[in-house]
Amino acid sequence: MAEKIESKQSGLWENVKVIIQALLLAVVIRTVLFQPFTIPSGSMMPTLLVGDYIFVNKFSYGYSKYSLPFSLDLFEGRIFASEPKRGDVVVFRFPPNPDIDYIKRLVGLPGDRIQVRNSVLYVNDQPVERIADGEFRADDQYDTGAPVPVFRETLDTGVTYDTLDQFPDSRGDNTREFIVPEGHYFMMGDNRDNSADSRFDVGFVPAENLIGRASIIFFSLGSDTSFREIWKWPANLRYDRLFKVVE
Fold first, then answer.
1. Distance of alpha carbon 181 from its chain centroid, rounded?
2. Which residues are catalytic?
3. What is the percentage of the chain residues whose pLDDT exceeds 90?
4. Tens of pLDDT, residues 65-76
5. Lowest CB count within 10 Å: 3, 36, 88, 114, which one?
6. Which residues pair with 132 in a beta bridge?
7. Which residues, 6+ apart, have CB-to-CB distance to 177 below 8 Å?
8. Radius of gyration (C-alpha) of the chain in whole angstroms
């Protein structure tokens, strides 16, 4: 009998160790490699949609305290730092309140002069190439009832992506010139008329606030479907977005 009890206790302890090891591995992966995020708003349409689930590459730019669980303040600045590229889609901590995660496209590097004139993005006084590229209509709460004009931008780095411009004369379509300070970045949403970004209250984003680069959409649900509503998945799953690379 004693041998059976000891055997059961040994088996239980082995199971506990496996669970602890799995949890530690998950924490390491989430902290050092990839972290899942859900897109909560339409500010990055049409690139990212509400209901997209993405993996963020956390070693793209190195690590700061915001890379750690609970944002543990163990060191200052970034370690193993790598410079982000203009055109990257970046997850970062909202400068006025670092408890909040934001996702936008990086359009301005340190020292750049950024301005929007008549809906055209200017980088260092050079217009970013912008051509009409069809129309877009959301399949969720952001459906305006009519298609929204799409414009494809191409940066000098060769990065190309679609943007939305529903209202050509909105306050974000003509801005002052912003000079990006050293150690900071300028972010904009691809949904140009519906994005709180560096043109407004986000301001310049410190390098320390960068979490990582959005890399892939691994799951996507339309029609404002909750992840828990499994019975709605077959009808509302966006099959064409599964494992789509974020560009």
1. 22
2. 43, 104
3. 72
4. 887 765 656 567
5. 3
6. 151
7. 113, 114, 115
8. 21
